[in-house]
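Hi support team,

I submitted a single chain yesterday and got back a structure, but I'm not sure I'm reading the token output correctly. Could someone confirm the output below corresponds to the sequence I sent? I've pasted both exactly as they appear in my results page.

Thanks,
R.
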Amino acid sequence: MTKYFLLIFFTLSALADNKVTRIKVIDFENPKAISSIRIAGGADSGAAVQAEQDPKLVLEGKTSLRMKLPTFKNKGPRWPHFFLRPSAFKFTDWRPFHRLTCEIRTITGQRVRLSIGPVGRARHPQIQYFNPGISKFTYTLPELLRKDSQIKKMLICGTDLQVDTDMVIDNFVLELDHKLLHQEIADFQRLATAEGSPRIQAAAKKLSGSDKLAIARQLVQLKDRLVQEHKQKIEKETVHLHREFEQKFPRKPWGYGSAGALTRVFRQLPFKGSIRQALSVSLAKNENEGIQLVLRAKRTIKNVRIKISPLTGPGGAKLTNIKHYLVGHVKTNTPRYRVRVQSQWRPDPLLDFLPAFTLDAKVFQALWLDVQTSKDQTPGLYKGYVSVTGDGVPELKVPLQVKVWNFTLPTHLTFPTIFTYSTNYKHFIYEKDKKAQKQFRSYMRNWVKYEKISPKAKRLVDLAKKSRSLLLDHKIMPDNLYSGVQTPPKTADIQNGIKRGGNLFNLTYITHVVGIKKGDSYPAWRKKSYLNYLRKETVKYKKNGLFKNAYVYAFDEVKAESYPAAREMLNALKDEFPDLKIVTTLRDYSYGIDSGLRDYVDVWIPVTPSYAKSSKAIEAARKAGKKVWYYTADWPYYPYANLNLEDPASGQRLLTGFMARQQNSDGFLYWQTTSWKTNAKLITKGPLTENDGGSSIHYHNGAGILLYPTPNGPIPCLRLKYIRDGLEDYEYTELLRQLDPAKLTLKQKQTRQQLLSVPAQVCTAPDKYDETGKYLLAYRQRLGDFLSEVK
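Hi R., thanks for writing in. Yes, this is the structure output for that exact sequence:
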């Protein structure tokens, strides 16, 4: 460690200012840096590197690295690349730092595309275009990479090079951002207070001083110590839970426990719940709510089955609509972001196709029970039981009781959402026959009728309908943010969705122009195409009464260089279709002031961190008659609430529920529901499945995946249940607001006033919320009891 400190201390390129500490990490003045380079494919690849000492080309000092990469057009490699090995680095532990920067001089006379990035436990390259001349490359170190104490190499790769490329590269610098460090310290102090030992809490409070690099290194060490503490705590809790099972079920081969809907039950980790107690759940009329039955056996038990008896309530009333699912597990790969609970096997897919399963010895296995009430369900307490049987073991009879509150949730929910379900190439996981795929595309584009396509193509159509129906079962209107003019939405699908509680649908996606420069016009041919398409479609939907539910999605996440072109396109659109809603995630956090789009955009949707930081601008936009929603995608990462597999279940329910109310969001958008990897596997078994939960966004688990594929079509997942339950939670707060105070007693008025504000223990911001779910469910219980009383 002393040697490490001295090496940095004597590095002449170590710089610091008020905001950033910079350390040069690769120095091409040292011959070892260049001799460490390994060219993939050797000399035969056409790539070459050398020390460049021409003062006109050198970027810093006397020596830079010159690299030549061949075009793939002349039968060259598509991705010519080379690696700088560890001997090129001054040090390999980059965990304290936030960014890596370098400079590149492009000698080639046209723009080229490179992929550059360090390699730790996985590759994390970043693609960037480089114009002729000198460019700066800035790489934000991902969370996963900042866990690696050893960077193994640096990748520099050409990507689909159109010409032979000649470049000079130098000045690799690691940056420690003081503002980000301050935020990391605050986050860690909060985490240490909640979960750390007194010793770690005391050390966390002392993380201050002028030497930011020393502080950052201390923070890394404290994080490592907290991880070790957490592992030891988990081991103790697991041993204790196994002992409790033994005590509650003495001399029995197996037993049961219960866990709430927001508890993820891992096979080898302890869960928060109760052992040998009745399953209990409360819900309104016309609502869904889940509860989990957890099994544990001393030995492997085959042919485990469950059967739920009809539940009997007041006056002999019956409650029979209770589905059960075996909770499946996916074997995830290490993601690029920080993960709270360390486990490779993660619970998520809900396996409704297995009539029986094998319960392994000494693991915790959950079954999800989904209770659904009707609009005319008699309120009161219902009782029954769950029967669990297996080969060679006595039956388990688990008491189940359901409390039905005396109020009804609406079928058409108040809080609007947009979730993409697209039948793009990912849908072809169900059918590899190219002819069937082509016919399916033709059907989706309204070029051919269902009766004219092959049985295989019909199966693809039927599975798409099954997917839409499954999403609607969970209060989600299947939509497509990215549909083009060639694939207009099908009227029958929209009508069915709205009938079942949906609200909005996208007519088309107005794309940005790749490589556009500030001041460039929007292409006239593309503008004409959109306007011609909308003339036809708007007439149709005005006739059938669906136009009020229609919108156009425009300029997905674009930046300032696209503002002028966006104004031109949306001005033309609004001139002709003034009543057509325009929805955008365009990055203007003044909501139309900076971009000049205030008069054209109806619904602004920033990502949750930007939403939380722009409250004044949001208030001004709403005063101007605009709606402002929020959204998540593969990002933001923990501690922000999101729908990745590793994110807290409570945050996933809060996003569409109490958090949306507390943040005063007008709606929620999520970018995909079937963003499977191209090599994703169909699930055929369980509870350990073949699928890894990996998203098409590399090194992300669950991102854009709310349905899992099986040979018989889609199945739901836990996160889909959380979203649905959140949407229903939101209705509790809406019903509370709709109560007429004049009809309430003084005490009821006071209670209503207290409940109108979401408690701070539940949520105060998208990154500050109840991660256990304890306070969320307690608030829901108070709302339910009160609404049942006043109704």
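A quick pointer for reading it: The chain has a mean pLDDT of 92. Let us know if anything else looks off.

Best,
Support desk
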